[in-house]
Amino acid sequence: MSQQASVLYDAPGPRAKQRNAIYTVLFVAALALAAWWFISELDARNQLEAESWTPLLEAGVWTDFFIPGLLNTLQAAFLSILIALPIGALLGIARLSEHAWIRWPAAVWVEFFRATPVLILMLFSRELYRMAGVDSEILPLYAVVTGLVLYNGSVLAEVVRAGILSLPRGQSEAADALGMRRSQVMTSVLLPQAVTAMLPAIVSQLVVIVKDTAIGGAVVRFEEVIAQLRPLPTSDYRPSVIATLTAIAIIFIILNFILTAFANWLERWLRRRKKGTGAVVTTDMVEEQAPGVRLEDTEADVAGRKDDG
Amino acid sequence: MTEQTSSATPMIKATAVNKHFGDLHVLKDINFEVPRGQVVVVLGPSGSGKSTLCRAINRLEPIDSGTIEVDGQPLPAEGRALAQLRADVGMVFQSFNLFAHKTILDNITLAPMKVRKQDKATARKTAMELLERVGIANQANKYPAQLSGGQQQRAAIARALAMKPKVMMFDEPTSALDPEMVQEVLDVMTTLAREGMTMFVVTHEMGFARKAANRVMFMADGEIVEDTTPDDFFTNPKSARAKDFLGKILTH
Amino acid sequence: MFDFLDKPLYAEYGGILGAFWVTIQLTFFSAIGSLIWGTVLAAMRVGPVPIMRWFATAYVNIVRNVPLTVIIVGSSVVLADQLLWTLGGSDTREISFRLAVLGFTLYTSCFVCESLRSGINTVPIGQAEAARALGLTFFQVLRIVVLPQAFRSVVAPLASVLIALTKNTTVTAAIAGIEAAALMAAMIERESDKVLLVFGIFAVGFVILTLPMGMFLGWVAKKVSVKR
């Protein structure tokens, strides 16, 4: 039991400890009740029979369905972030430009594609590619990647902007003082440092992208993990729909846990190392980013700024 | 339980107080009394447990064993009784801890109105008098972030005084201040000491200890190593640890 | 140019406006649900009872790593098709709507919880200690010192969550043809000569729904933020 005081609570006294013990018992009872109810619900529909679940243990289920699906998911995700990164960098720098005629179009582009749902972007790109005569085999991948690039290019633009703004002001002042031109300051001083600061945020964005590839599986017939829900239960293996979906969810959870752990490790590593300014764009700044809301308003503070000076 | 507030009752009484942070024994069998009106300065190297002791007296840090009494009342463990006791013990923190979303004036009137149930006019009048006293009446309507550290700490002292506390605890009140602001805070504390307030001050300010304290407690490794008058402590330290400590301080 | 909108094929959606109206309703009910369940989760996560903290942490970390599509599809194929839940709905359309709201609530509440928790954590613990040292009780500390400051710093993140939710409602298209994205999916395949126009209509629809809301709430967030 934690004896620590928090911003909300005093360190517990004897009565508080007793109260917490009662809450613990009640909560465990409630959880057990809910679990029992759900299990009996499943049982009532014969969903707990072994033959619904055991097919998942067969190698073929994985080699023919899940692993190809997972590879497609990863392919789409990595392609998307690789293409979105340079686009995001360009847009992010453009938004910091001194010239309004560069800043404004970039702002409109970024805000438009942050405001438009990825699903709609995917539907639209699929039709464009279809009209352009793209082969129907590869069409879904194109549609998914294009939709993800359009959206994430704009999201990453904001990450790049926050990354550059996170650098101590002294960096650009020193470069200015050395007589470097604006573009030189940006490309040889600010951008390289900002990219390092952004690495954790970029990896976290990969989690969002991985999750969004599932939209492609559901609406543009992209053969990623969740798309296996259609063929698998009717295949020769016959796992139940519930079992299949459970496996799909677990695959995503594990994949995203690995990515999140990697992002957190990167963040800690960047903060610890001596080289560089220690500026980091934190990972939770990216999740659920919305149009019109600027990163720096969300109080998820741009670390490094505070240590400045 | 009899209500004892005679002058013979010590303001603070600690008996056999022990506390651990995990494996670390931070307070080792602490015993002391602080009589009414006394100004005690607690000195010691960092990590000696002096801040923990200060915070234990109003149970911001719970203790593992032993008893702490404030004005004859044992420290309650929780709830309303604890809140009432805390209302009588003023506390000044190293990091000021003013409420960032309230003006200086509102910071000071908050507890008198919510805890002491004073009406707004009375609370404001007292607050302005106190701000006058600590010399920042002209800052009353500003927010904490708009004030310098020294001004914030003086406001924090005024906030504690507004509760008309029986005793004032200071937990390294000048450690977070820029050097040029230390004196303005110490001046306020010195005045308070002269007026007869019972004070328990954890600090590194030797000047204040010499000038305003009646008594010095020197702590090291969770123990009270020396407990004597300031004169005696600075001129004639008995323990090796105190000598070592003074040697380091005085050479700087 | 816009004649195609009147085709009887699209009438079951109630036209463009009708479809967007369903989007708005989905967003509204899911937002209410997420706010309630997210607040409960946040209360558990910052609470003094270890098992509740553990549960809320596990819930948030698991559910937010599952794609929303999996949750929405799951609510349809598992809850509706296999377990035959109707949530009190009488026809397919109503059942789909309610299940979607349930799915969005389960997912979005993770982000509500995290926003609230980080809001509470922006209040320095020293201020709470100072409030306790002045003799304020638990509820006074909560009401006077912690929540007012926490509230100010959750406006922006909650605004982001709300806007993301608005866009996320399009995932309903994966299970039911009731809202804007489903109508667009139906249209864009049939009106192949007006692809850009169809996209433009729906994209602008979402920009109109989200951008002013984002800018307004961003402005509010800036207005109320606490200087530190």
Describe this structure in words.
The complex is a heterotrimer of chains A (309), B (252) and C (228). With 309 residues, chain A is mainly α. Chain A has a domain at 61-275: MetI-like fold. Helices cover 68% and strands 0% of the residues of chain A. The two termini of chain A are 41 Å apart. Chain B has helices spanning 50-56, 79-88, 104-114, 120-134, 149-161, 179-194, 206-212, 230-235, 240-251; strands at 12-21, 24-34, 39-43, 65-70, 73-74, 89-92, 167-171, 198-202, 215-220, 223-228. In chain B, helix 3 packs parallel to helix 5 (149-161) and helix 5 (149-161) runs parallel beside helix 6 (179-194). Chain B is globular and about 55 Å long. Chain C is elongated.
Write the layout of secondary structure elements.
The complex is a heterotrimer of chains A (309), B (252) and C (228).
Chain A lengths: L13 H31 L5 H4 L5 H37 L4 H16 L2 H14 L7 H28 L2 H9 L4 H38 L21 H32 L37
Chain B lengths: L11 E10 L2 E11 L4 E5 L6 H7 L8 E6 L2 E2 L4 H10 E4 L11 H11 L5 H15 L14 H13 L5 E5 L7 H16 L3 E5 L3 H7 L2 E6 L2 E6 L1 H6 L4 H12 L1
Parallel strand pairs in B: 3-8, 3-9, 6-7, 7-8
Antiparallel strand pairs in B: 1-2, 1-4, 4-5, 9-10
Helix pairs in contact in B: 3-4, 3-5, 4-5, 5-6
Chain C lengths: L14 H32 L3 H14 L4 H15 L9 H30 L3 H9 L4 H31 L11 H11 L4 H30 L4
Helix pairs in contact in C: 1-2, 1-4, 1-7, 2-4, 3-4, 4-6, 5-6, 6-8, 7-8
* Content of β-strand of chain C: under 5%
At CATH's second level, what is the architecture of chain C? Answer: Orthogonal Bundle
Helix content of chain C: over 70%
* Element string of chain C (H = helix, E = strand): HHHHHHHH
Structural class of chain B: alpha/beta
CATH superfamily of chain C: MetI-like
What is the total tally of β strands of chain B?
10
N to C succession of SSEs of chain B: EEEHEEHEHHHEHEHEEHH
What is the gyration radius of chain C calculated from CA atoms? 21 Å
Largest interface: pair, residues per side: A-C, 69 and 79 residues
- Kindly name the structural category of chain C: mainly alpha
Strand order within the widest sheet of chain B?
6-7-8-3-9-10
Determine the N-to-C terminus distance of chain C. Answer: 55 Å
- The shape of chain C, in one word, is elongated
The biggest beta sheet of chain B is recorded as: 6 strands, mixed
Report mean pLDDT of chain C, rounded to a whole number.
91
Number of DSSP strand runs of chain C: 0
**What is the helix fraction of residues of chain B, given as a range?**
25-40%
**Number of helices, where a helix is a run of at least 4 consecutive DSSP H or I residues of chain B:** 9
